[in-house]
Amino acid sequence: MSTVKAYGAESKTADLAEINIERRTVTPKDIEIEILYCGVCHSDLHTARNDWGGSMYPVVPGHEIVGRITNVGSEVSKFKIGDLAAVGCMVDSCGHCDSCKHDLEQYCENGFTGTYNGQDKHLGGHTFGGYSQKVVVDEGFVLSVPENLDLAAVAPLLCAGITTWSPLRHWNVGANSKVAVVGLGGLGHMAIKLAKGLGAEVTLFSRTPGKTEDAKKLGADHVIISTDDSQMKSVTSKFDLIIDTVPYDHDINPYVATLGINGTHVLVGFIGKMEEALFTPPMIMGRKSVAGSVIGGIAETQEMLDFCGKNNIVSDIELIKMQDINQAYERMLKSDVKYRFVIDMQSL
Fold first, then answer.
1. Which of 65, 67, 103, 271 could be a cystine partner for 33, CB 3.0 to 4.6 Å?
2. CATH superfamily to which 2-158+315-347 belongs
3. How many Å apart are CA 233 and CA 298, to the nearest integer?
């Protein structure tokens, strides 16, 4: 084992502060990565503050990790020392269930191991995330990073990117697709970029006109103000796929009405119970669906990174020092970031 510096929370009410954690010695299948950048996700904040319950302390968040390989195990075949590498939301899964066999580790029937707050089968206790100097991960859960991309801006692709890429691919978005995005935040801005990159006609649903200019800069072809009844009626039965990134309870019925025949409204942002009942006639009369999706498997995440490398797609970020993380959390709660914080880990 080795001791490394990290930033973590000792309780749900404590600010994140510098602590020491243990990383395991590299096993034959392991890769050790010096962490250069780590993205900041709302899940980090929720876990640090135990908003979802089940947080194990100390919590060291961070599942949008980009770095350089400093050591490899004797049986590692895919990577070498000096390679750029990335780690997303998972560091392990059972490997033998039907989901894992079909490259759907995110739906592991025995539960995947989260990059943080998961069960650490090597050291016992729980896993620690990327707010740290280095990480040791099985090579099967390490990703290759295209050399041409801005490394800091790659980090959010490991969560915000794959969370929106996976439904785009599953529902076969391409050049003739009409895609709408609900919510222009960390997830929403990536959904626009990736859908546009795949050749779709992209529309943003926004509650206020103030985001129109930003949305079009990101690649949106149209912006519909969802509080304007006439604008909503103008897109009735238009969309093949709606990616809903809103992280709080909201009425999805107005959006379902904008789906075309066989269209799907996929929820990627909200975890919980919707209070507004789903109105089914538009669904039944148009074979429309409401679905959910979460991140993606390792193969699909690598596919996304390769696609982003070829198309020069990265997140829009604000780079911060590790010491600024508590202020960044408060700003995130106010949606005061365009569109994702990334920590420069050299500051730790």
1. 67
2. Medium-chain alcohol dehydrogenases, catalytic domain (3.90.180.10)
3. 40
Handedness of CA 250, 252, 253, 258 (dihedral sign): positive
Question: Per-residue pLDDT for 347 more than 90?
Answer: yes
Q: What is the pLDDT of residues 37-96, one digit of tens each?
A: 999 999 999 999 999 999 999 999 999 999 999 999 999 999 999 999 999 999 999 999
Give the burial class of 124: count Cβ atoms within 10 A of its Cβ; 0-12 exposed, 13-18 middle, 19 or more buried: exposed
Longest Cα–Cα distance in the chain: 64
What kind of fold does domain 160-292 have according to CATH?
Rossmann fold (3.40.50)
- Considering the entire predicted model, what is its pTM? 0.96
Taking the CA atoms of residue 136, residue 62, residue 185 and residue 36 in that order, the dihedral angle to the nearest 10 degrees is -60
Q: Is 134 left (phi over 0), alpha (psi -120 to 50) or beta?
A: beta
Query: Is the CB of residue 160 less than 8 Å from the CB of residue 186?
Result: yes
**Coil, helix or strand for 316?**
coil
Three-point CA angle 255, 182, 333, nearest 5°: 130
**Residue closest to 162 by CA, chosen among 19, 295, 274, 329:** 295
- C-alpha gyration radius of the chain: 20
Per CATH, 2-158+315-347 and 160-292 having the same topology is answered: no
Q: At a CB cut-off of 8 Å and minimum separation 6, what does 327 contact?
A: none
